[in-house]
Amino acid sequence: MTIVVYEHPLSPYAQKVKIALDEKGVAYETRMPAAMGTGQPDLEFLKTNPRGEVPALLDGEVRLFDSTIILEYIEDKWPEPPLLPRDPVARAQARTIEDVMDTSFEPINWGLGEIRWFKRAHGEQARAIEARASGQARGINEWLTRQLGGGKWFGGETFGWGDVCVVPYLNGASGNGIGPAPDSALGRWLARANGRPSVQKAAKAAADSLAGMTDVASAVKSGLFKREYRDHRLEWMIRSGGIDVVLEGLKAGNIRFSNELR
Ligand SMILES: N[C@@H](CCC(=O)N[C@@H](CS)C(=O)NCC(=O)O)C(=O)O
Question: What fold does the segment set 3-77 form as a domain?
């Protein structure tokens, strides 16, 4: 039975899912929802995720959404090799790392994208928002360094859940110029993680996708893209100095909130 991952190569949430499947040697096919990012419903895709977000997983009749839920399903259905450690405390720590990355780190990379790719702010304001982003990333990198301690991987001796959940974000951060210093403990961990074929595959797909991205700012202006300012992303933009970015985008109709489920 074919397993389908609805995804976008640049989505760190989708990368988590693809890396986990590849680590476990589970074959899957990827599919990109039609008109991704435009807010236009792809009705087939919405059957799998009514929120209209990637990743979503189709496994026969099973339809799942949200990267955390999908990761749990993958671990339950294909337990070998395990990504979650056995020890209850270590499991809790791995899940905490995932939550911090998904909710606190992701908006930083995403917000920089809003400024640099989608040109939501300019001049002084753009520089101030970028400075906030790099300070926030530094803070989380320090927190991550403490979680790593002297370990090889976040869960200890073997590559696991924490590593899967950190690497897409730190690769994104490095691309944004706010990654860890290469000669730091976290920078060395990142190089190790990028040595894994599962990570290389996801990172290459992301780089290829980025290389094909041209003039997305005018696509936003023309109303083609309608960016989703959901939960942590909305908070991030407001907290980091972009409340008028939100108000202008809402007025121009190129910002939207998450789907209401029906
Ligand atoms: N909590 C969700 C978040 C997923 C998410 O926000 N995905 C973004 C891409 S990174 C998305 O599909 N946004 C919809 C859009 O841009 O149209 C998860 O963990 O899977």
Answer: Glutaredoxin (3.40.30)
